[in-house]
């Protein structure tokens, strides 16, 4: 059987890297990585070439004929873009419709939430989905809960500092809301399962590696490290105030990436811990199919294993290029 051809946008990003690794691990795909022209000289792009990958350069905001030409012969498009560039999927979708691709994975890989002001990211992603569906492009929307790597508090010894992006020491609304969580490695592996599966065509699909509250996460970490966490307890009202402040900050400094991340951070605090949206029940309510039911033999990496690796010094800082104060 001939290999399916994949066009991967964002192969050097956090999500794109895990998807790329899983595609390579699977071995049944011809992969083309799209790199925007301005990034062609980055060491991360050279690293793709060093791995023997096919890299093409182009710009999603450039002439549509150029994108169509890049997509000729492509079966599946995966858009794992920087969340600030979500609208660049519009011309990509236009080109995908013209070429007649088998499947398009729009940039998602997040937590389930209704649209309408809960998460700005979800609203923008939803507008892209609307556009995709108007064009009748075949699709699979993949959501994965929240990454383990973004769910870890700082421990007093500083043992985890080498791998923490933003410490999760704010315990919100009592810390009891359960959340779907996933290891980044499994984000890629789950995505590859979904694209090989006809049952996920024109569906939203979700899964998780563990379902844990903040209190359960903290119990695991205290038990495994023997340290007592220093936590800040915030109410739902505190989150609401922080969110308003963050939005004002972003409106005052729209070009500052840390301001955008701050809004995202507080909106996530609200949806995950106050509204408790990041649950299997909410995903089912929103019409998703359950990836854990589809793949009962999948060996999900558990949160405890992730913490064992952090303790053993095998963790990895996500977004190593970003220094944020949020
Ligand atoms: N579930 C979770 O906990 C979680 C956490 C974080 C993110 N996410 C989701 O994961 C998805 C991807 O985000 P991410 O954080 O993984 O992305 P990321 O690390 O910021 O990576 C973005 C990638 O897209 C490329 N890129 C950016 N703009 C582009 C453009 N206009 N044209 C072509 N390539 C472009 C970047 O390359 P260059 O900049 O080098 O060109 C990079 O390879 C988003 O939907 C986000 O919401 C989920």
UniProtKB/TrEMBL annotation:
InterPro entries according to UniProt: NAD(P)-bd_dom_sf, NmrA-like, NmrA-type/Isoflavone_red_sf
Top-level division of the source organism's lineage: Eukaryota
Organism: Lojkania enalia
Boundaries of every NmrA-like domain copy: 3-307
Protein name: NAD(P)-binding protein
Membrane-crossing residue ranges in chain numbering: none
Pfam families to which the protein is assigned, alphabetical: NmrA
Lineage: Eukaryota, Fungi, Dikarya, Ascomycota, Pezizomycotina
């Amino acid at each position: 059987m001939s290999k399916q051809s994949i066009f991967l946008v964002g192969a050097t990003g956090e999500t794109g890297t895990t998807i790329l690794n899983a595609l390579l691990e699977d071995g049944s795909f011809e992969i083309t990585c799209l790199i925007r022209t301005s990034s062609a000289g980055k060491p991360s792009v050279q690293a793709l070439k060093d791995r023997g990958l096919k890299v093409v350069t182009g710009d999603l905001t450039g002439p549509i004929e150029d994108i169509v030409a890049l997509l000729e012969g492509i079966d599946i498009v995966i858009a794992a873009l920087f969340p600030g560039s979500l609208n660049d999927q519009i011309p990509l979708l236009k080109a995908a419709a013209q070429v007649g691709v088998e499947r398009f994975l729009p940039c998602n890989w997040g937590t389930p939430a209704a649209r309408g002001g809960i998460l700005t990211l979800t609203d923008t992603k939803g507008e892209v989905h609307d556009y995709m569906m108007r064009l009748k492009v075949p699709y699979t929307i993949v959501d994965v809960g929240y990454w383990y790597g973004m769910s870890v508090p700082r421990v007093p010894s500083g043992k985890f500092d080498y791998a923490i992006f933003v410490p999760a020491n704010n315990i919100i609304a009592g810390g009891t809301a359960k959340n779907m969580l996933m290891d980044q490695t499994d984000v890629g592996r789950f995505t590859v399962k979904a694209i090989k599966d006809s049952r996920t065509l024109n569906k939203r699909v979700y899964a998780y590696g563990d379902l844990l509250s903040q209190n359960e996460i903290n119990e695991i970490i205290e038990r495994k490290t023997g340290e007592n966490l220093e936590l800040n307890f915030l109410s739902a009202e505190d989150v609401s105030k922080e969110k308003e402040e963050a939005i004002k900050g972003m409106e005052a400094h729209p070009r500052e990436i840390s301001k955008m991340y701050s809004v995202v951070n507080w909106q996530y605090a609200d949806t995950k811990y106050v509204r408790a949206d990041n649950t299997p029940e909410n995903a089912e309510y929103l019409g998703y199919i359950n990836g854990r039911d589809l793949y009962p033999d999948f060996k999900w990496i558990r949160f405890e294993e992730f913490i064992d690796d952090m303790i053993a010094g095998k963790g990895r800082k996500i977004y190593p290029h970003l220094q944020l104060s949020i």
